[in-house]
Amino acid sequence: MAVLINFKICDNAKECNGIAVCKTGALSWDEKKNTIKIDNSKCVSCGACEKACMIQAIKVARNDKEYAKLKKEIDNDPRSFFDLFVDRYGAMSVHPGFMAYEDKFDVEFIKTNKPVVVEIFNNDSIKCLLHSIPVKKLLEGKSKIKYRKLEIKSDRLLKKYKIAELPALLIFNQGKLIGKIEGYYDVGKQRALKEKIDKILGKIKPV
Ligand code: SF4
Prior knowledge:
Number of strands: 9
Oligomer: single chain
CATH class of the largest domain: Alpha Beta
Strand content: 15-25%
Distance between the termini: 36 Å
Bound molecules: iron/sulfur cluster
């Protein structure tokens, strides 16, 4: 009957898993408006998109009553996208919606139209496990930026992006690497890290 998206927590990206699994075209990407488009006249309430959305931003209603209930829940949801961030690397649980995988790296980061910040970490490194870059705070207010964490499983990306030290942040825009920050920054160095990130993001010209 109808699909709803909670845009308060959705990062509204072209690579939306919901779009990928929707066989009827009820969910699609609007190139002109740069947003996920919903066409409820095509929705058959199969539920595939709801299952595919890892941050549970997509909801499917089977009838009017359910639609009204879900809409109210979304309207009253106090969260924002940034509330889903977890500041730590591997040791703490990371919201699955923010995890990225090496085999999908090119699709998620190279072919996306958004600026992307990727934290790369190694689950075997004590520094990556015990220390954190407080990226949540550093990216607050930058809602147009896509943010992901990626656990490194091979040296392919380390070689490709010449990463010598982990954890590392890779920053992409329009598929191009525009900056790289390597190594651990403790809380005392937050300001230095923020300045570095802002300097890199400052290279992006508004479109
Ligand atoms: S419920 Fe099914 S048909 Fe409707 S938008 Fe989701 S995947 Fe497409």
